[in-house]
Amino acid sequence: MDLNVLTAPLTVQEIEWRVQSQTKDGQKIIVVPYITNRCVMQRFDDQFGWAGWQNEIKEIDGGFLCTITAVLPGGEIVKKTDGASRTSVEPVKGGISDAMKRCAVQFGLGRSLYDFPKVLIQTTDKYIPDWANPLLDKMVDKINSGGTVRDVVVLKPEHAKSA
Q1: pLDDT (tens digit, 9 = 90+) per residue, 150-160?
Q2: Which residues pair with 85 in a beta bridge?
Q3: Which residues contact 68 (CB under 8 A, 6 or more apart)?
Q4: pLDDT 10s digits, 42-56
Q5: What pTM did the predictor assign?
Q6: How many CB atoms within 10 Å of residue 4?
Q7: What's in the keyword line of the UniProt record (predicted)?
Q8: How far apart (Å, rounded) are the C-alpha atoms in residues 138 and 15?
Q9: What CA–CA distances, in Å, run from 22 to 36, 64, 119?
Q10: CA distance 92 to 25
Q11: Is 35 helix (H, G, I), strand (E, B) or coil?
Q12: Which residues does residue 66 pair with via DSSP β-bridges, in sequence order?
């Protein structure tokens, strides 16, 4: 079974970057890429057809389990399950969304994000500054086009001025 739609490189629109932590000196933040839940739904629709897959959410202690069931072209049914905790912002919606995204990774969607470099952004803020977003997009495009990127990338405000 060729899951080329699910495993195709993620576009900048399908990725959201989140702050994972701040460095001990407070001068940089570490950001990590995630797939969006809209990406999951669209890619599954494109791969299996609108009626060719479904998801089921079960509430468990502290979070949610998502099972995605897909019907392959030959009629074989495949089910995969993964879970996530309630989130700090919109605990139910966020937890369900995260469980679904984690489950989609079981099918190969977004698995390539684990190969992305460690990304640090030079800022004392606790959020991603506006100047950094175009640089993150440019890095994703470079990775998707087969370009090489260092294992650790540090984005600085002066990089945005020269971009």
Answers
A1: 999 999 999 98
A2: 63
A3: 44, 53, 54, 55, 79, 80, 81, 100, 103, 104, 106, 107
A4: 999 999 999 999 999
A5: 0.87
A6: 9
A7: DNA damage, DNA repair
A8: 12
A9: 23, 28, 12
A10: 34
A11: strand
A12: 57, 82
